[in-house]
Specification:
The protein is an alpha+beta fold. It is built from five helices and twelve strands.
Amino acid sequence: MTADAAQSTRWPVEHAPVSSEDYRGAISRLPTGIAVITAPTPDGPAGCTANAVLSLSLRPPSLLVSLATGSRTLAAVLEAGAFAVNVLTWPDHALAGQFATGSSDTRFRGVPWRLVHGVPVLDRSAVSAVCRIQQTVGLLDHTLVVGTVTWTRTGVTGATVLYRHQQHALEDER
């Protein structure tokens, strides 16, 4: 390998900490689904955008979500003991921004939803799963929430994924 080729791949010269900016750029190349996490509250539904969602286990069916510690949605999830994962469809990809900012009433404005097992579920999601909290783990500035899946639904439209800071549509091949 030439010196020019080695430099273009940014191999480390020394052990320096990775900056948040460099990490964000690197991890943006990991395609990830965009979901809205929802939970009930006495004042109505709470929800936020999340892309740190993963399937954890088949026995029992379990999901793991990572929510910012101190967030309103995490507080609602913990209080309710349950939450829903709603994977966004391409026609609703703008909801990622809507659920990332603002108050709960503006987040749900114009968004059709219904209660399933006492948890708000978005009507037009590619996939929805209702979960009961099994365990939580505080880690760094987030809380990992493990939920046992009690209900699922798949929609008829493909999911939206995030890759290199851009949203992209996945086609459902039904």
